[in-house]
Design goal:
Layout lengths: L7 E4 L8 E7 L3 H8 L3 H6 L5 E7 L6 E10 L10 E7 L3 H12 L3 E2 L4 H8 L5 H12 L3 H11 L2 H25 L4 H39 L2 E6 L6 H9 L17 E7 L2 E7 L9 H16 L2 E7 L6 H10 L13 E7 L7 H9 L3 E4 L8 H17 L10 H19 L4 H19 L5 H8 L7
Parallel strand pairs: 1-6, 7-9, 7-10, 10-11, 11-12
Antiparallel strand pairs: 1-2, 2-5, 3-4, 4-5, 8-9
């Protein structure tokens, strides 16, 4: 595999209105092409590398100025791609960047494909595949936790973990192959017995660590769509009012007739920098209405899938056995539970402007459930309410350790296969030929992960997920 010698150009910032736009130009003829589109050709040719200069982009007649820009010249191999390169900083918007790109294309540049700059950097030895993927992760991350994971990879910690894992597998494989080679040597067999037990334990520990990384990766991936908050509770407690209050506008219908909300209404918002998917659920009660009952079934499903449940209850109604059981079920452990062993649940006692509810406060205290007293109608404790929401969402993100190895779907697929091969190796441990077979397959998978065996088909699959200009 070798990098193309053509010169490519692309917009590296999002299209649309903005103060500035960045255009990248990379390839053997990058300097000549850029010099052909500016009015200060001689100045650019004489300009030192890695120095910023001011230039004017002119039309093909050299008479009309398209834009006044700044640009930095890079000489190969001291550039991002390892090629001759120019980075152009022009005014933003839809028209000027397009006109500059048109001039570059007319002068010999070609339009860059998805991820082509990063791909050239990889092929020219400026970065490895993991570094390229970490850059994509930094740009594409939707949550702080995903960003943290991509930063660890960018800093090389992912590579260190993989190399450590690879060395462990090689050492165990070497021990197995030694037993195969000297199977009839009684002295060797006797001295190896303890090592066999230690190696099997080591493999079981590796499997456990990989499964933990897969679990963390799945949790981070689930948060990319937002922390799921379900507003649940009995009818007429104020769930829809709370939903509208959090959104800042009327999205759900609010009425004093029980059963007004008959389905789970959802909206995605960014709350204090954290993406949240908020569900206003149907009130939970016994009903003969088939439509309302279907909505209650969806509510129970939303509660099960939620990272956080805000159970909204009214201070002016007694605590029924059904509501007691509903709160207990909402706080139960499931796959999305935090490491503390229970789902994050906050009891919101609404309508305290009407009456205080000592019974419900005592119920929460007896079961160590966090609660807050509010009045949505009178805006009592509104600040405390939003502080509690902020604390709950931040805690879900902060309590989750990032994966050490996995930052994308390709990594997830390979590590799942590695864990599967190692489980097979442990299952057949003692049958040296089979164990060695599975460890060799594991090393092949790790080589694929590291990019050592990545052909054009694999690289195409990876870089097609990148954006143009990256």
């Amino acid at each position: 595999m070798s990098a193309s010698t053509s010169t490519i150009a692309a917009l590296s910032t999002p299209p649309g209105r903005g103060a500035l736009a960045v255009i990248r130009l990379s390839g053997d003829n990058a300097h000549e092409i850029f010099a052909a589109v500016v009015g200060e050709k001689e100045k650019f040719i004489k300009e030192s590398a890695r120095q910023i200069g001011i230039y004017t982009i002119v039309d093909d007649n050299g008479t009309e100025i398209i834009d006044e820009i700044t640009a930095i010249k890079y000489n190969a191999p001291r550039s991002f791609t390892g090629e001759n390169m120019v980075e152009i900083f022009c005014h933003g918007g839809a028209i000027i960047p397009r006109k500059i790109l048109d001039r570059l294309f007319m002068s010999g540049a070609e339009a860059a494909g998805r991820g082509e700059f990063s791909r050239r950097a990889l092929l020219n030895g400026k970065m490895d595949l993991l570094k390229a993927e970490s850059i994509a992760g930094l740009i594409d991350c939707q949550t702080e936790k995903h960003l943290e994971s991509a930063q660890l990879a960018y800093q090389g910690k992912q590579l260190k973990s993989l190399e450590k894992l690879k060395r462990k597998i090689i050492n165990i494989l070497s021990d197995i192959e030694s037993r195969i080679e000297f199977a009839e040597d009684d002295d060797v067999a006797e001295s190896e017995s303890k090592l066999i037990i230690e190696n099997k334990r080591e493999l079981e520990l590796i499997i456990s660590e990989l499964e933990e990384d897969l679990r963390r990766s799945d949790m981070v991936k689930s948060l990319d769509e937002g922390i799921i908050i379900a507003l649940a509770g009995p009818p007429n407690a104020g769930k829809s009012s709370l939903f509208n209050e959090i959104l800042g506008y009327d999205r759900s219908i609010v009425h004093d007739v029980p059963g007004t909300t008959r389905d789970a209404v959802s909206e995605k918002i960014v709350f204090e920098g954290i993406t949240v998917k908020l569900f206003d659920c149907a009130g939970i009660r016994i009903t003969a209405d088939a439509v309302e009952q279907r909505g209650i079934e969806r509510t129970l499903s939303a509660i099960k899938d939620a990272h956080i449940v805000f159970w909204v209850t009214s201070a002016d109604t007694p605590l029924t056995d059904d509501e007691r059981n509903g709160i207990i079920d909402a706080a139960a452990v499931d796959d999305k539970s935090s490491d503390t062993g229970r789902k994050k649940t906050l009891i919101i006692i609404n309508k305290i402007d009407i009456v205080k509810s000592e019974e419900k406060k005592q119920f929460c205290a007896d079961r160590s459930l966090e609660y807050i007293e509010i009045s949505l109608r009178e805006k009592i404790n509104a600040d405390a309410l939003f502080a509690a929401i902020k604390s709950s969402t931040a805690q879900i993100s902060e309590d989750m350790p990032p994966p050490e190895i996995i930052i994308n779907d390709r990594h997830r697929r390979i590590i799942a296969a590695v864990a599967s091969n190692l489980r097979d190796c442990v299952f057949h441990y003692g049958r040296e030929e089979l164990s060695a077979h599975y460890l060799k397959k594991t090393l092949d998978l790790l080589a694929e992960f590291l990019g050592h065996t990545a052909g054009d088909e694999v690289l195409n699959e990876i870089f097609e997920k990148f954006c143009i200009g990256k």
